[in-house]
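Standup notes
- DV: blocked on the single-chain target, sequence here:
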Amino acid sequence: MLVCRRAVSAISAGSGRGAGCLRGRRLSMAKSKFEYVRDFEADDTCLPNCWIVVRLDGRNFHRFSEQHEFKKPNDDRALHLMTKCAQTVMQELEDIAIAYGQSDEYSFVFKKKSRWFKRRASKFMTHVVSQFASSYVFYWKDYFKDQQLMYPPGFDGRIVLYPSNQNLKDYLSWRQADCHINNLYNTVFWMLVQRSGLTPVQAQDRLQGTLAGDKNEILFSEFNINYNNEPLMYRKGTVLIWQKTNEVVTKKIKLPKEAEEKEVQVTRTRTKVVPLHCDIIGDQFWEEYPEILAEDS
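- DV (later): unblocked, structure below
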């Protein structure tokens, strides 16, 4: 007991020798007999030279949107909140080359050569989902000013690897096509419920077996709505990319031979996450932003 007290006194007094001995003991203690349990951890390293896509979806958002009184068929507040959360994720994880979102889902594409988290799938997924979910709660009040968050939302995630640029483009095309199909259906469905007075079951029966042309005809002939004039955000979803933008900021500087500081405007170039609402199925988008798929991006 006396030896232990003397050792503690020596360390407290700043004895390098005592501190070194303690550090050595801690290092040796780190390798305990229990360390074998690490052998049960599965190797989830993502394959090299593949695009890593993390897609998250809102968990039971049908009930969540009803209880929080989302506007139907689209609520701008909810869509903008989702985009804000996705922007936050991209700003925290800068190896994301592009993201795409619609409704209650977002896909994040990590660069082919990314070495973040040693390419461990579990790390990619948990970082993205946790950052997104916490941002959703954090920024809720900025978009739903008069609506209290009744309970915390949940999101699930999955990871898919795509070896070629064409595979990745086809994946994003699939998600945008899904956005169009769902939004067209929801637009007609809610018009039938809200303006024609049909019950949800009756509206569903009315639309059963209809094609896109039939839905467009219902919108135009019964509600005077041209679906092509609906906001692009609803029809195309939201694409997030990195873009260089010029910002004009006011800066105080002190000029030679002058006692007081003066305010001057300075233009700075910054790289920001910018939302776009455009077609990504055709070639035009990829030709306009070739840096997204560039190997050295």
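- Follow-up: Residues 1-29 have pLDDT under 50 and may be disordered.
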